[in-house]
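## Example record

The block below lists the input lines for one assembly entry, exactly as stored, with component labels intact.
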Amino acid sequence: MNIIVPIKQVPDLVEELEIDSSGTGLDREWLKFKVNEFDDHALEEALLLKEEHGGTVTAIALDGGDIDKALFAAAAKGADRVVKVTGGGDTPSNHEAARMFANAIGGMDYDIVCTGVQSVEDRDGQLGVILARYLNVPQISVVTGVTVAGDKLTVIKEYGGGTVAEFETSMPVVLGIQAAREAPRYVPVAKVRRAMKSTELEEVSGGSADVNTGSHVNKMFKPEVAGGAEMISGSDDDMAARLAEIIKG
Amino acid sequence: MNETREVFRNFPVWMQIAFYVAALGMTAFFIYGFYKKYKKYRKGRDADRFNNVAGRFMKALGMMTTNSTVFKRDIYAGFAHWLIFWGFIVMLIGTAIVMLDHDFIELFFHYRLLQGTFYLWFSLFMDIAGVGFIVGLLMMMFRRAKKPPQLNYERVDLKKEEYDRGAYKKDDKAFIWLLLIIAISGFMIEGLRIMSDGYPEFEVWSPVGWQVAHLMESTGLAAALGASLHMYIWWFHGIIVLIFIGYIPYSKAMHMLLDYANLMFVDDMAAKKLPRVSEEKQKEAMGYVKLEDFTWKELLDFDSCTKCGRCHVVCPANASGAPLSPRDIILDMRTFANSNGGGTAEWFNQSFTKEKGKPGDKKLAIAGDIISAETLWACTSCMACVEACPVGIEHLTTIVNLRRTLVEEGEMEDSLQDALMNIGDYGNSFGKSDRMRAKWTKELDFKIPDARKEEVDYLWFVGDFASYDVRVQELSRKVATILHNAGVSFGILYEGEKNSGNDVRRIGEEGLFEMLVEDNIETLSGANFKEIFTTDPHSFNTLKNEYPEFGGNYIVHHYTGLLLKLIGEGKIKLNNKLQHHATYHDPCYLGRYNGETVAPRELFNVMGVKLTEMPRNKENSFCCGAGGGRIWMDDSKLDKRPSEMRIEEALALDGVNTFIVACPKDYAMYSDAVKTSGNEDKMVVMDMIDLLEEAVLVDTDDASHVSMEIDS
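Predicted structure tokens for the full assembly:
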């Protein structure tokens, strides 16, 4: 079973985010980037599937930032191939990213593509969906469980309100992983260093990312601060009375 | 009359020959046992322990002859061991003299050494040694009968039905009874000889034999058993001695030879400075996976253990109900090494549990199966085991080497994994931006110089907790203010500083440690300072002991030493005598690791603080439970947290209501512990700098306001 895991980097939220002068994006000069948390889960699920059923895992990422390090870390965790997609811009939209991933993946031999279900940067969870459309294969999002049943997959998808659905799908398929069965594994520094020496970082061109579609940002701004908090104290009766007063308005 | 005795008196020649044959056979068996061990040690990796061989030899000789490491903190056991040790040595030398005299000097030179005055002194000396020997053995038997906790062989990681340690108990009994029987039967032979010789006058120089003779005669024992009794007892004694010689390499008696070697080859820096992984080794694995990965010293460590249990009872993990006993790690590793390394199986070997499979099973992972991951992760790296061990075993080095394997396999708690990832990504365990590292300085009304840009006398290596933990930040500001007011030239590295790596290394993440060291050394080499100080004993240890190996050579102070120096120089002026009645917790990495126990106490002295020591103090301090990465692991499964036990130890002291620490992690741990144990109203946790702040306050009204009223 061959699994491909597209990885992307997102702004690290430990840093304070600033909006750039255009008012439509983040000031990237001071940003630090890290691998999208959901992509880490997608990679973990892929590695677990490989460990169970054999095959290969390929980690693939768009060029930029510290992506080499992220790909070597993926190799250190157990990815067999690591591929860097070159030629994209600094901040590709999901449509553009999906187009480039599709260009790169299209020629590869694969059964499953595991994407992270969404990223902190978009929160719309569309990358996997669009990618599946370009690849012309089925897609399931918000996946929390994958089991192999012969040449088919049984996939658990989470809906809102705690509802869970079980799907059966043929392969190839694109899965948007919400959470891997186990927490993403730790990769010690020594292993990453070893991977840097022993792994070949492949490069493929992302080709044309000209998609002429998708949304664009009009204005980006920080949440406006409003209201306040009232700490209710006093005896139980006092507090109950005050609560009732607030609820009644 | 010639004062002497006849060897082999009345023995037919065949009997004498039979004895020599048996003696040679047993000696061969003895040599074979140690030869097999030697072959096993040779399978181990090289360890750099042959520097200063003469110095090592003499130092170990001193420890051995005085039994100083056995006496340490246990005078009773030390004295009993000393009696047995010297009793044995004297009698061994005595027997050697008899052999030399009879089988060499008399045979070839027709002269006898053992006669006349020399023989009389010899007899007296042997009798005294024999009595001391028996007294020592009886003391040990009495001690064991009282079942002290350190001699409890119960495992803390397995249920009772999952293992059997009967073999160890048999070995204990065999060892002590063999020795006792040899001593008593020896005196009986002497007594019977004196009796059958008709009590020659000079034999009063064998006072014990003399009394034994009378005793056996008066009770009618000798008469009842007939004239051949002397020969029977002689043979009995001889056979037991030969059995004992053969028994030595295959039992706990091997410690008589091995432990001198282990003390001789001990590393004084063990645990304080952990071993690097060679470039060659790094290509395969950072940690240990097979017997050949261990150094010969580690393999010798495993055989050196006498199960005295000192490490077992000082271990904070063990005390808190975690599944770790340093003793059992060493003993399990011994069983493993013997099974896989071709060493001689002990007669009284310990088997693994059924679940763990046969000891020789190659499929068992050393880190994970032989020693479970839970056991390895329970260690707080406090070094109490290494410090307590009377025979120079370096438990902690082995534990870290096995942890390295767990890290390599990613086998660790999620919270620990998060901490490591944070340290890797941001240089701190808090997962905060590295740019926020010096944010705590913003509230100061002066700016601390950036040592990367300005020249300073002292570089303050602040550390993670003192930089990011809200409670400790307050202490950091006090340190800064006092130094600033004292006119001390000091600076910090701002966002250039990273976690020092001390605990990262003890977790077993050697690659990350090396990365941190390289980054810190690079930043430090770009800074302009004379000496370093830190409030964090953990950073202190690695900066002082481990950075030099990576090219970072600095003079490093702990702030307690620096503050004392500044007070002595008059730079910090004390304006108030404090009224506290306090106890002081020695941080593991300060007191035990680095022997700094004087400066903190001297500070109390100059500030007027009344200090009452906890029973476990200085090098014998009891860990708070935070070290070795434990601070990032779950401690909710412990029966009782070490920090809470420590607070109780302090509460038991009369009149003490202030608990002084000198370590950021201690401050965090003990502030929690007084709350979780419900002792907030009885004990106040303060840092050394809190005290100093009170002592330097100019307004005395303020001082009395801040300081607590105690000691009525």
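Chain B has three domains: 13-44+51-152+159-263, 272-288+297-408, 416-706. The domain at 13-44+51-152+159-263 of chain B is CATH 1.20.950 (Fumarate Reductase Cytochrome B subunit).
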